[in-house]
Protein 1
Amino acid sequence: HTLGIISGITGASYSRDGYFRSLVDSLLSVISEYDQNGLIFASHIFHADPNQSIRIYCDGRCDGLLVLAPDLGSVLVNSLRERGFALALIGTMSYDDSLAYCDIDNMHAMSIAVRELLELGHKRIALCQGPAGLQPAELRRSGYIQALSAANIAMDDRLFSPMLGDPVPIANWVRQVMHRL
């Protein structure tokens, strides 16, 4: 009666990241409603040697694993699949129909958001990108490009943020964009 929860992003910190903290809190709340237990794993445990960690932590400790926002081609996800372990992805669309997942249509959502801004008369719309290699970030970028292209607005690479990670370059990029507007 235990469901494991782990970040698919190496080094993700639930305590510092508002998105993950809120997501984990919500998951634990629902797990509790069903009189089940939740087991949160430190991401480095599984990412260092997924096959060894799966044998140690998943054989009898939990009945399934929720993997939050795994990278494309995640070694962890592939190892779990090969072992036949019950898992579901959250924040990333499934690799194929054999895996359960929960996510939004990131490309369509971003396209709608950009079109709304264009309808309000905005012509220079910046994109603050997510971490490199994450499927949702790639899909949002595609939706952004698609909406601008459909409106015949030329791409301006200066309006793309560096990939998320270190907050200093992002803050500097925001200052530069604000200065140009």
Note: The mean pLDDT is 80.
Protein 2
Amino acid sequence: MQEIVRELSQSELFRGVPETVLQRVAEAGQPLELRAGEVLLSPERPNHHVYLLLSGALAVHFGAPDSPEIRELSVGFSVGEISVINGNPPSAYVVAKRDSRVFPIPFELVNELTGGPGTIAHNMLRILTGWIRTNTE
């Protein structure tokens, strides 16, 4: 578990977060192994996790998983935030560009760590993700 805590602490998402919180996040899941070409997120499937990329690379695609790549995500990036915060399915496909490891953070824990629905922080995140989703579409 200490290895996961170390990996979490090196991400932008968890910058400056106390180790006690990182340990709690590390206890909430197990890393997932993805094979190159495996779809992690899809507009056809609801998403209930934020995924932190621990190793490998992910690619973002609009329209289809084999459409041209819009962006490559490297170690330390996270995906799934928009769909978790606003409760809609993902707006894009996220595909493992090569064999990769991701750490899933459950929706319930994300809500708890952001203050949850009904807080100013959560409402600001919901508004921002709505703008991002609208601009993306």
Note: Residues 120-136 form the longest helix (17 residues).
